[in-house]
Amino acid sequence: QVQLVESGGGLVQAGGSLRLSCAASGRAFSTLGMGWFRQAPGKERDFVANINWNGVTYYADSVKGRFTISRANAENTLYLQMNSLRPEDTAVYYCAAIKPPYIGYALYRSYDYWGQGTQVTVSS
């Protein structure tokens, strides 16, 4: 079992930055693939970014070049640095973990564990 707790959300103006954190406990963090998803009101939960156990990263086209996913295995923590934020980035952001063999990293149904979410609001 893995417990995930996000933090770092908030209200920011367009063009600003936020850094989200996700603290993990339970199963060995370093063996898990980790992802960030987001869900705006009335919309589906969308893939944002993923980082493999070995540090390889993947991004949704909408955030590529603006967001950076990273992990600190020694601290059991996942990060999402968000720069050049836009109003359309407004959503609840979720941290998620996927067990080996990590198939379907961009699909929310592939993930095994989820955090409770943190709200990010970008004002224009």
Could you explain the architecture of this structure?
With 124 residues, this protein is mostly beta strands. The protein has no helices and eleven strands. It has strands spanning 2-7, 10-13, 18-26, 33-39, 45-51, 57-59, 67-72, 77-82, 91-98, 113-114, 118-123. The strands form two sheets. Strands 2, 4, 5, 6, 9, 10 and 11 form a seven-stranded mixed sheet that branches. A four-stranded antiparallel sheet has the order 1-3-8-7, with no helix packed on it. The radius of gyration is 13 Å and the shape is globular. The model has no long low-confidence stretch (mean pLDDT 95).
Outline the low-pLDDT stretches: none
Overall strand count: 11
Helix content: under 10%
Protein structure class: mainly beta
- Overall shape: it is globular
CA gyration radius, whole angstroms: 13 Å
Spatial separation of the terminal alpha carbons: 40 Å
Output mean pLDDT. 95
Largest sheet: 7 strands, mixed
Count of helix runs: 0
